[in-house]
Amino acid sequence: MKWGVVRFPGSLDDSDSLYALRDVMGQDATMLWHKDATLDGVECVLLPGGFSYGDYLRAGAIARFSPIMRSVEKFASDGGLVIGTCNGFQILCEAHLLPGALTRNRSLSFICEEIHVRVENARTPFTRAMRQGDVLKLPIKHGEGLYVAREAELLQMEERGQVILRYCDADGRDSEDANPNGSTRAIAAVANDRFNVFGMMPHPEHAVEAMLGSTDGLGIFRSIASRS
Amino acid sequence: MRVKVFISPRKGILDPQGRAVEQSLHTLGFESVANVKVGKYITLEVAAKSAADAREQAQRMCERLLANPNIEDFAFEVSE
């Protein structure tokens, strides 16, 4: 599968994402520049983490109007696969490609730690290589990861299975302590209602080799790659 | 025309900043304080034919970029 990683001014995890895809996964992956008008024929677009445009105004609010985002929106509306991690998730919400929004952590502090998430829906292009109930150990590093959406929207998302990952403890159980940022319903990742756009706050690209502390991020990339 | 834009967290949306400021005010003895919200105040100048035109432009700016309607409410004032 051919992947495109979009580099915005202020992206941080673009190189790590490319490394995870190319060097670890052996995928065909290319870097895309935020001013590019086209997507270079890629089959999956990855919006990486970081602080695009310094997180000015709101995280992702400025990046969402980058020239390349028009192509990403068109690509998504044509059914193309789009994954956003951390800041990429924030950008996808700002672009209304995903429901809801990400706001300041409940603690008001930046959090950098390993957390656990549970796969809530394994029948998506982003989770199909895993099983429902699988627990993944992944790192998070964000100041604005508290997921919010309107109550009616949340109910609809739960019904349709759009809540893809939920924070949990190491054994996969729900607990307030295991919700690092105070996200509504402990939501860590969501998909759109067509299940071709996916956003997650944890970082799969930082969990792809044993020496990084976890290889659980591979489950996400393998799922996407298994489509081709 | 000058435009003042006021953005605040939407009612019912968690506002951890507002809550922290409220708790701090209580600690300082301002027990009477409730419903603290921390928002943004943006000023800008816009070339407009009339106040109505400026208001119409401001409305679109707020809807498209300045505020996120999912989580924020906005209001603005237009003056010469």
Total beta-strand segments of chain B: 3
What's the tally of helices of chain A? Answer: 5
CATH superfamily of chain B: Phosphoribosylformylglycinamidine synthase subunit PurS
Q: How many separate helices of chain B?
A: 2
Total tally of structural domains of chain B: 1
Distance between the termini of chain A: 6 Å
Low-confidence stretches of chain B: none
Q: Indicate the low-confidence ranges of chain A by residue numbers.
A: none
| Biggest interface pair, counts | A-B, 20 and 11 residues
Would you mind describing this structure in some detail?
The mean pLDDT of chain A is 96. In chain A, the strands form two sheets. In chain A, strands 2-1-3-4-11-10-9-6-7 form a nine-stranded mixed sheet, sandwiched between helices. Helix content of chain A is 21%, strand content 26%. Chain A is of the alpha/beta class. Chain B has a single domain (2-79), classed as Mth169, Chain: A. A three-stranded antiparallel sheet of chain B has the order 2-1-3, covered by helices on one side. Chain B has helices at residues 16-27, 51-66; strands at 2-9, 40-45, 72-79. The longest helix of chain B has 16 residues, at 51-66. The chains are: A alpha/beta (228), B alpha+beta (80). The interface between A and B is medium-sized, with 20 and 11 residues.
